[in-house]
Design a protein that fits this description.
Beta-Lactamase, 12 strands, 43% helix
Length: 335
């Protein structure tokens, strides 16, 4: 439609998002493939640079009034992209699109054996291009928001904690991968009709903690233990207010899944404290709840040998007591 409106041979719509990603939509009567590599040459396109100048925004520009066809034929983009694809595009007119989510161009082209574009062509193109510009802006905003949401979700999935965001009534707005694993097990925290709930004995306490974090007047954080059954460590929750403009008051729930293995602990201990492989293995056993006697038995060493290794661990981590050392191990951020 853009090409027809301007009586042009080809059309290019190119969008560059604020994070550098690009997208190209193109049409050509003669060489439909030369646009495929345009993103690689976009920064070298003198026509694009001209269209994005502030003086040329919000209007259709006859770019050959500033960049002559002969000058364009001496450019890298013409010789390494256009001519390489057996095309002879030299005449161009178009408009630029600028928004908080990126910028783009709409360009129409003719070959060097055609007549250059005139003001009448620009007037016809403008009637159609204004609609394409709106689409590009809206599309850029939606794709930017989608990528931002994906990045945020990936970041939450990478954190070594289970994370849930809930409204005041317990309705789950968001959960990361670790939290989904816990909810799928339904061994202390459950989902009932889309609402976060807990075992009957602690359900009221969970609701109270969420209410305290989502109250409009002085919201506050709460620590809460959710039992998981006999001989199973409880989920130790932090229920805290969510700050920022999300519309309705919400609570952020953070806790560690005791069944989720931390495979990076040994490498982190060696990197942070320069411990040996043997010392790192002992530290992991201690963080997992084993007693020194159990560790010595499992490793086939005497208690005197184990005490010597524990003394070395305490010195390297600057911990004076075993409880302090275990707390340090359990609170190291994951890789």
């Amino acid at each position: 439609m853009l090409a027809q409106a301007a009586n042009a041979r080809s059309t290019l719509m190119f969008w560059q998002h604020t994070d550098g990603l690009t997208q190209t939509i193109a049409y050509s009567q003669s060489a439909p493939t030369w646009f495929n590599d345009y993103a690689t040459f976009a920064e070298l396109d003198s026509y694009r640079a001209l269209a994005l100048q502030e003086r040329n925004l919000n209007r259709v520009v006859l770019v050959n009034n500033w960049v002559t066809p002969s000058a364009f034929q001496n450019s890298i983009i013409y010789n390494d992209l256009i001519r390489r694809n057996d095309d002879d595009t030299v005449y161009c007119m178009g408009s630029a699109v600028v928004s908080p989510w990126g910028n783009g161009i709409i360009g129409v082209h003719r070959g060097k054996h055609h007549a250059p574009f005139e003001l009448e062509d620009a007037a016809r193109l403008r009637q159609v291009a204004v609609h394409a510009e709106r689409v590009l802006r809206a599309r850029g905003e939606m794709l930017s928001a989608r990528r931002a949401a994906t990045l945020a979700q990936n970041a939450l999935d990478s954190v070594g904690l289970a994370i849930l965001t809930v409204l005041a009534d317990g309705r789950i707005l968001q959960s990361n991968e670790a939290a989904e694993d816990v909810l799928d097990r339904a061994d202390g925290l459950i989902v009932r009709h889309g609402l976060l709930a807990a075992a009957q004995a602690t359900e009221q306490k969970l609701a109270q903690a969420i209410a305290k974090a989502t109250t409009k007047n002085l919201p506050a954080a709460t620590a809460l233990a959710i039992p998981r059954g006999s001989d199973e460590p409880a989920y130790l929750l932090t229920v805290t207010p969510v700050t920022g403009r999300i519309g309705k008051p919400a609570a952020l729930i953070l806790f560690r899944d005791p069944l989720r293995p931390d495979s990076s602990l040994a490498s982190r201990l060696r990197a942070l404290f320069n411990v040996t492989r043997s010392e790192a293995a002992i530290a992991i056993d201690l963080a997992g709840g084993l007693s020194p006697a159990e560790i010595a038995k499992n490793r086939g060493v005497s208690m005197n040998t184990l005490r010597t290794q524990l003394k070395s661990l305490h010195a390297k981590t600057d911990c004076r007591r075993q409880a302090e050392f275990v707390s340090l191990m359990r609170n190291l951020p994951p890789l």
